[in-house]
Amino acid sequence: MCWKKFSLLLWGVCALAFIDVQAAEKEEIKEDQPADSLFLTVDELFRLGVENSLRLQADALDEAMAYERGKTARTSRLPNLQIGLRGGVVGQPVVFQRGLSDAVRPDTPDWSQNYAIDFTQPLYEGGRIRYAIRRADLQTHAAALRSASDRADVKLELLEQYMSLFSLYKQREVLMRNIEESELRLKDIRQMKKEGLITNNDVLRSEMQLTNDRLSLTETENSLALVSQQLDILLGLDESRMLLPDTSLLRRSVALQEYDAYVEEAYLNDPAMQLLRKQTEIAKNEVRLTKAEALPSISLYASNTLARPVSRTMADMYNNAWNFGLSVSYPLSSLYKNNHRVKESKFAVQMNLNAEEQKKQQVRVTVRTAFLRHREALRQVDALKLSVHQAEENYRIMQNRYLNQLAILTDLLDANAVRLNAELQLTSARTQVIYTYFQLERACGRL
């Protein structure tokens, strides 16, 4: 009987101590971490993720290529300068003095040489050069917007894995504590079995529960190692480093704004939305560029040629000639070849406008989903705090009832499972609050 009272007192002290920990909402990971672990904040997560993302590195190359295309397009304003050199053997000419009779083979030099410099400066191209430069600039801006959109997506993907670390560490913490309590409970149950207070069935059930908890702990630790490895690879870290999340993030205040404010901001700042608008500008520019191909071209030209021998007399002397003037050309074939291309370009504009409207609908759905899920997670946190307290109280009562032989072991194990599940649900709801908040940030173009 003394052993029974002592066990009841010991379990009561343990339960009260745990309730105090829950009331303080202590989220720190209690387990001693290995030496190769790394504490990682969200800012550091984003910084390393952006620096080491292969997708963003490809986007940077695309931006560099677009920038160079812009430089190339601007060179079209510069003059064309060409230097030519020709040298070869002069064949023996044959001169027929009467019809095809009396052939004469005059003396001629054996070698010919020709040195030429040609200069062309475009003066008017119907806007083709100007619109080509504008297209290159728009493509450069579009490449930057694609990078911004991909950067936000990369951050959100990293955050999703980062949030899973919170749940896994909390699950490991709860399981380790549960195993410790189960070991103490099993010890007490075995003592009660020796005293003849309970049957061997309770001992077997307790041993089975302890085995299941240890298997769950092993599975959780393996999941932690896998998630850490995945993040290590994405962040450019050693794959063996165990990452420790910043638990203070779960206590960050994340208030909600009005839904319409989120939508308006998303229309203006979402990189994907801005990219579609930029692509519409590119399509409109293509219409102007296609129309410009039906306009005349005017250019200034000049050339100088030094040749030997003289082409008319075949005298073995150098002859220098130069000229300059204006060149005007008009593509008459564009009057019947260009119409369909112009219509196609106009249809492309309509397609891009349609894509903008589709994106607006998608933005409203995305913002609304994140908004409602965020509000739902906030309410779940408040509700689950109460559920955890109730589960703790229920477990304490079932402990007392079991020790006084007023409840069976199954009731106690069920109460323990309810308590464990409530704690994990609370952590999941807290991580969901953070994730949905960043989803809203992503949809609004803030991430």
From TrEMBL:
GO MF term set: efflux transmembrane transporter activity; porin activity
What UniProt keywords apply to this chain's record, in alphabetical order? Cell outer membrane, Coiled coil, Membrane, Signal, Transmembrane, Transmembrane beta strand, Transport
**Coiled-coil annotation: which residues?**
374-401
Q: Where in the cell is it found?
A: Cell outer membrane
State the InterPro entries in the record: OMP_efflux, TolC-like
**Which superkingdom heads the taxonomic lineage of this protein's source?**
Bacteria
Q: Give start-end of the signal peptide.
A: 1-23
Q: Which GO terms describe its cellular component?
A: cell outer membrane; efflux pump complex
* Pfam families hit by this protein: OEP
| Family note | Belongs to the outer membrane factor (OMF) (TC 1.B.17) family.
By what name is this protein known? Outer membrane efflux protein
